[in-house]
Design a protein that fits this description.
By secondary structure, this protein is of the alpha/beta class. The chain contains 11 helices and 11 strands. A hairpin with a 4-residue loop joins strand 4 and strand 5.
């Protein structure tokens, strides 16, 4: 029996286990922009940095780094300019992919969406609401997030207890209120507190308890992305899987997956998505 056969067999067994965990509500899907790579708008942090750089001249240190690019624009053009440019970048709706619709049909307790578009939001039907991370720049409030019902109306956190599905968007999103965590300053504030979990809503902490995570369409080559994922999955279940979009893993990505006990599913991403869908 060849090593390649053994690897494929192990990957399919891991994929089947991840699918069963999702179907049973025993895992939290953690979604990235790689699920719909050809969708309109920027689909990676680097592409978003390029979009911002095409709108505003950036210093060399900020080129290619979306967090630094947004910080430069905020510092020299005002926060409103950052918000306007982010809203322009994500103005064209991203249609939900088959995976988004399949996950919506499972009525899961918790879904994490780590990008700014509305694809997962648009797939959900009834009995859901969302919580989004927010910038604290200029709001004059001591809060880290806001809750919205399915109609996009801001509600008190207590309302979330009645939602079958909670959509957690830690970096914010274009809808319903143009909340964006994007600049270095945004993240410095959050990262000073995230290790003690203050910026993560209590209901997210409750719903992740005892559940694994299945990362789909994410990459972790950037320290910011790793820091967030590490803290969001803190004190969760024991088994975690990752379906990663194409390209060889960077050394820091491999190290992160190993440190966090995340098993990468070694199948071509498109094939893995198709096979995952066939399990639901």
């Amino acid at each position: 029996m060849s090593a390649a056969f053994d690897t494929q067999k192990a990957a399919r067994e891991a994929l089947h286990d991840a699918a069963c965990m999702l179907a049973d509500g025993a895992a939290v899907p953690y979604l990235g922009p790689g699920i719909v790579p050809e969708a309109p708008g920027p689909r990676t942090p680097e592409a978003l940095a390029g979009f911002l750089g095409a709108k505003v001249a950036l210093p060399r240190r900020a080129k290619g780094n979306v967090w630094a690019a947004a910080q430069h624009i905020e510092s020299y053009k005002h926060r409103n300019t950052v918000t306007a440019l982010m809203s322009e970048a994500f103005a064209i709706p991203v249609p939900p992919a088959p995976l988004h619709r399949a996950l919506a049909s499972l009525r899961l307790p918790l879904i994490v969406e780590s990008w700014y578009d509305d694809a997962m939001r648009a797939a959900l039907g009834e009995g859901w609401g969302e919580v989004q991370g927010i910038t604290r720049a200029g709001i004059g409030e001591d809060r880290w997030f806001r809750f919205y019902d399915a109609g996009g109306v801001q509600v008190m956190p207590e309302a979330a207890a009645g939602w079958t599905t909670l959509l957690y968007r830690p970096h914010g999103g274009v809808s319903p209120a143009r909340n964006y965590l994007i600049s270095d300053a945004d993240y410095v504030e959050v990262l000073t507190e995230i290790d003690i979990q203050t910026p993560i809503p209590d209901i997210v902490r409750d719903r992740r308890a005892g559940r694994g995570f299945v990362f789909i369409g994410c990459r972790f080559h950037d320290q910011m992305l790793r820091s967030y994922a590490r803290q969001i999955m803190k004190r969760s279940g024991a088994r975690h899987y990752a379906l990663l979009p194409g390209g060889a893993l960077a050394r820091n990505e491999s190290r992160f997956l190993a440190e966090q006990g995340i098993t990468p599913i070694a199948l071509p991403f498109g094939d893995a998505l198709d096979e995952l869908l066939s399990c639901f």
